[in-house]
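Example 9 (inverse folding). The structure is encoded as follows.
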């Protein structure tokens, strides 16, 4: 079974590494001062968390070129990926560029799907662009970079270092940070799920007769 696994390597760091790294770093910088009876400074804590987050982001972003090649290889191997996935990502970039807020992004995507003030020209342009594999890879790559930037900014704003850990640390969508991190993972796993090739289209199966025993077998 072949599928476009390159996208998974691009998406999974943003989905799993950043929330888990932020949670671990925040817990660590809160636990160490109390464990060793050190003076606690909120500003030092915040700066340390952001510095460690920056290092984590650099470690994640560096291998993007190789991963982009992996995505291109998946397309060259004719791995089937829903084109609508790239269309929504491209539209998401345009919406975020126009309305730089997550709520605006959600509203824009919903309006785009339902039938909204989005011009027909924009829809036709997106549909034409994602028909070409290389442009689809480019849109996916840029959109994932944008999502990573959004995650980093949200983590910095709603970091657990700004709230008590017993309250879950910070809030995303008016929920505790840890609950929201799990919800974020589930959302992206659902959005980035790739339908295998054999489920999207029915392949013609050829039969050959074995020379030994006269049995038929399926290729």
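The amino acid assigned to each position is listed next.
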């Amino acid at each position: 079974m072949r599928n476009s696994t390159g996208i998974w390597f691009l998406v999974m760091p943003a989905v799993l590494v950043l929330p888990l790294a932020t949670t671990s770093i925040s817990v660590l910088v809160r636990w160490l001062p109390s464990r060793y009876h050190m003076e606690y400074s909120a500003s030092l804590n915040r700066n340390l968390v952001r510095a460690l987050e920056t290092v984590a982001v650099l470690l994640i972003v560096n291998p993007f070129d190789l991963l982009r090649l992996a995505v291109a290889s998946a397309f060259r191997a004719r791995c089937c990926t829903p084109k609508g996935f790239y269309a929504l990502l491209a539209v998401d970039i345009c919406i975020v560029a126009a309305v730089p807020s997550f709520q605006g992004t959600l509203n824009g995507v919903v309006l785009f799907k339902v039938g909204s003030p989005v011009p027909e020209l924009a829809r036709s342009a997106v549909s034409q662009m994602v028909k070409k594999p290389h442009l689809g890879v480019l849109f996916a790559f840029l959109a994932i970079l944008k999502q990573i930037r959004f995650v980093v900014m949200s983590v910095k704003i709603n970091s657990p270092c700004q709230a008590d850990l017993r309250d879950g640390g910070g809030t995303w969508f008016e929920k505790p940070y840890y609950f929201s991190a799990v919800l974020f993972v589930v959302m992206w796993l659902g959005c980035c799920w790739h339908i295998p090739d054999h489920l999207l289209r029915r392949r013609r199966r050829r039969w050959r007769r074995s020379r030994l025993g006269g049995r038929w077998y399926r290729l």
